[in-house]
Amino acid sequence: MTTPERTEPAPAADERTMLDGWLDYHRATLELKCAGLDDEQLRTASAPPSTLSLLGLVRHMAEVERHWFPVTMAGEEPAPIYYSKDDPDGDFNVTEADTWAEGYATWQAEIARARQAVAGRSLDELSVRKDGRTGELFNLRWIYTHMIEEYARHNGQADLLRERIDGATGE
Fold it and tell me: What is the CB neighbour count within 10 angstroms for residue 157?
């Protein structure tokens, strides 16, 4: 596993460039938190009874990328990757058979799919799918902002997980 590069967005970029930049920054941050660890370490849960692990976070973010960009914004209908009705937390419930290679490849494929789903769309464009609770549509700006928040929150969890695994701390 190579160490990922992180670049902060330019402080005076236009809105779309800024949102893309911060989302990519947070994607790279999660990858950085996982860098240099083996599969066993990446599957290490935070503390019982929680099943939260770095690999689980990567799998979860693959699901989140799929949900918000191709599904909610663009109206695609792919099946969930890791969770099901029988296992609604399947993205977090990793087993000995789950590997970084598979989780990372899936996550990266979902990031590419997300980028493709919103390429050329205006930030003001409304989603195809409605919020299941309120029935409202989301504009792409809201989805970007939510995704940045989602990554930032989970990156905080990743900081604690990484520190527990090998003592590494950082941004």
Answer: 18
Q: Where are the domains of the chain?
A: 48-166
Task: Give the CA angle between residues 106, 108, 109 to the nearest 5°.
Answer: 65
* Contacts with 3 (C-beta within 8 Å, 6 or more apart), sequence order: 32, 35, 36
Residues 6 or more apart from 83 whose CB is under 8 A from it? 63, 89, 90, 91
pTM of the full structure? 0.95
Amino acid at 160: L
Q: How confident is the model over 85-110, as pLDDT tens digits?
A: 999 999 999 999 999 999 999 999 99
The whole-angstrom separation of Cα 29 and Cα 107 is 14
Tell me if the domain spanning 48-166 has CATH number 3.40.50.1370.
Answer: no
- Give every CB contact of residue 168 below 8 A, 6+ residues apart in sequence: 162
